[in-house]
Write a structure and sequence with these properties.
This protein is of the alpha/beta class and about 290 residues long. The protein is built from 12 helices and 8 strands. α2 packs across α7 and α3 packs antiparallel against α11.
Length: about 290
C-alpha cells in the first residue's frame, strides 16, 4: 500500500500519462476503469460485469488484472469475491487521464520526467478534438417534445411517485410502450420518439421519485451506486437523470464522464442533463393526465 502513495506529487505527471497509456485504445479496459471509478469505492467482478458491455466476467478479470498490475486499482475481496478498489489519486485525476486517452497527440506532448517538454510561454492552452468528443449539456427547455413547460410554474413535487413521472414523460413524448422496473435494467424509460431540433432522437431516462429522500447523489442511484453507468449503456443519444428534489453536482459530473466515454467509443454526439424537482413540477403541470 505504501508504494502506491509515496512521492505522489513529484510523480503526478508520470502516473497520469502512464494510466492513459495503459488504457490506450482498449474499449474494454476503459469501461472497466470508468466503472470502478464511479459509485461505490469497491466493486466485485460480478458488479463490474453487470455494469459494462464486456462479454464475460473473465474479460473483467483480465482487464482488472492489467489495471491492478499498474497500481491503478487495488485488487481485493468483497463478500468473498474478487473485487477492485479505487485509489484516491486516480479518482482525483480521472478527467485528466480521460483527456489524454481520447487525444493521442496531447498524450505525446504531455510533460513527464521521461518526456520533458520545453515551454516557450507560461500559458498552457488545451485544445479538444471535436471529432472525437461531441457532448452537450441539455435541459428540458431545449427539447421540442417538452415545449409546453416554458409556460408552467413550479410547485412542490417531493411526494410524487416515480411511476407518475414516467407516465407524464410518456404522455409528453407520445410513447405508448410498457416499461417494467427490475433490478438490472439500464434505464427506467427509453424511447425513440423524443424530438430535438425537429428530429426524432433516442432518449434514456433514469427516474427517482418520492422513495429517494433528499438531494440525489450517485450513492442513492442503484444498489451499488452504478445506475448512471448502467443508464449510459442504453442505445440512446440523450440521457436524463430525474429526481423530485435537488440533484447534486456530482451526478452531473458522473454523467459528463460517461457522456465523454460514450461519444469517444461510439463516435457520435451525446446529450446529457438533469431534471430536478423544479423541472419535474413543470413537466407534470404541462403533461400529466392526472393534474
Amino acid at each position: 500500500m505504501a508504494d502506491r502513495v509515496t512521492d505522489a506529487s513529484s510523480n503526478r505527471q508520470d502516473k497520469i500519462a502512464n494510466a492513459a497509456k495503459v488504457i490506450g485504445k482498449s474499449k474494454d479496459r476503459l469501461e472497466v476503469f470508468l466503472t470502478i471509478y464511479s459509485g461505490t469505492k469497491i466493486k466485485t467482478v460480478t458488479e463490474i460485469f453487470e455494469a459494462t458491455n464486456l462479454k464475460s466476467e473473465v474479460r473483467v478479470l483480465q482487464e482488472g488484472k492489467k489495471l491492478a498490475s499498474e497500481d491503478m486499482v487495488i485488487q481485493t475481496k468483497k463478500d468473498g469475491k474478487t473485487a477492485y478498489e479505487k485509489i484516491d489519486f486516480y479518482t482525483h485525476n480521472k478527467n485528466r487521464i480521460l483527456s489524454l486517452v481520447k487525444n493521442h497527440e496531447k498524450l505525446k506532448k504531455f510533460p513527464t520526467k521521461t518526456n520533458p517538454q520545453t515551454q516557450t510561454t507560461s500559458k498552457v492552452i488545451v485544445h479538444f478534438n471535436k471529432n472525437l468528443v461531441q457532448i452537450k449539456p441539455i435541459t428540458i427547455d431545449d427539447i421540442d417534445s417538452f415545449s409546453k413547460v416554458k409556460k408552467q410554474k413550479q410547485f412542490d413535487v417531493k411526494q410524487v411517485y416515480e411511476n407518475d413521472v414516467k407516465e407524464t414523460l410518456k404522455n409528453a413524448i407520445g410513447e405508448t410502450g410498457k416499461f417494467t422496473d427490475w433490478g438490472g435494467e439500464t434505464d427506467d424509460l427509453y424511447s425513440t420518439r423524443l424530438k430535438l431540433n425537429g428530429k426524432r432522437i433516442n432518449v434514456a431516462f433514469g427516474l427517482k421519485g418520492k422513495g429517494t429522500k433528499g438531494t440525489l447523489t450517485p450513492k442513492k442511484m442503484g444498489k451499488n451506486g452504478d445506475q448512471i453507468q448502467r443508464l449510459f449503456k442504453s442505445p440512446a443519444e440523450i440521457f436524463f437523470v430525474q429526481h423530485v428534489d435537488q440533484i447534486d453536482e456530482s451526478v452531473i459530473d458522473q454523467m459528463k464522464t460517461h457522456a465523454i466515454a460514450k461519444s469517444v467509443t461510439e463516435g457520435k454526439k451525446i446529450y446529457y442533463g438533469i431534471i430536478d424537482g423544479n423541472d419535474t413540477s413543470r413537466l407534470i403541470s404541462a403533461y400529466s393526465k392526472n393534474k
